[in-house]
Amino acid sequence: MISKNKTKNKTKNTTVLFDSGTVVITPGASCMLVRNNAHVEEFLARHFAGDWGDCCKEDSKMNDDAVEFGGRVLSSYKVRDEKLWIITDGVGKTQSYATTVLLPEEY
After folding, report:
1. Domain contains 2
2. Does 2 have pLDDT greater than 50?
3. Residue 1: in which H helix or E strand, if any?
4. 91 is in which domain, residue-wise?
5. What's the pLDDT band for 10 if we cut at 50, 70, 90?
6. Does any domain span residue 7?
7. Cβ count within 10 A of residue 58
8. For labelling, which of 1, 21, 38, 97 has a CA lying 20 to 30 Å from the CA of 7?
9. Residue 12 lies in a domain
10. How many domains are contained in the chain?
C-alpha cells in the first residue's frame, strides 16, 4: 500500500509520497502559468501528495505502483483551458530523482 510511504511535510502539513529531487520548469510551462495567474507550487503539492489530476484510471494505477515499487510518475492538470504535466523520474530508486514541470507539447 502507498500509505506506508507517506511522510508529513512539516511546513504545510500536506502528505508527501515521494521525493522531488531537482525540480525544473520549462519556459512554456512557466509562461502558461503566468498567463493563467496560476502558481506551480499548488500543482507540485498535489503531485507529491498523490493527486494525479486528470489522469485516467490506468495511468493513476501506474503512478500508484511507481510510488510503491519504483518508476516514473506523471500527473496531468487542467489550468483553465490548457494542460500542465508534472513528471518525476526515478521514484523509489537509489539514484537521484528529477521532477519536470512542462506542457504536453514540450515532451
Report:
1. no
2. no
3. none
4. 21-106
5. very low
6. no
7. 8
8. 38
9. no
10. 1
- The H or E element that residue 28 is part of is helix 27-35
Q: What's the rounded Cα separation, in Å, for the pair 45 and 15?
A: 9
Say which residue the cell 519556459 belongs to: 27
Which residues, other chains included, contact 24 with Cβ-Cβ below 8 Å and sequence gap of 6+?
Answer: 98, 99, 100, 101
Distance CA 4, CA 17 (A): 9
C-alpha cell at position 20: 522531488
pTM: 0.86
Distances (CA, A) of 90 to 36, 78, 98: 30, 24, 7
45-104 pLDDT, tens digit per residue, is 999 999 999 999 999 999 999 999 999 999 999 999 999 999 999 998 766 689 999 999
The secondary element (H helix, E strand) that includes residue 90 is strand 82-91
User: Residue for cell digits 506551480?
Assistant: 40
**Does 13 reside within a domain?**
no
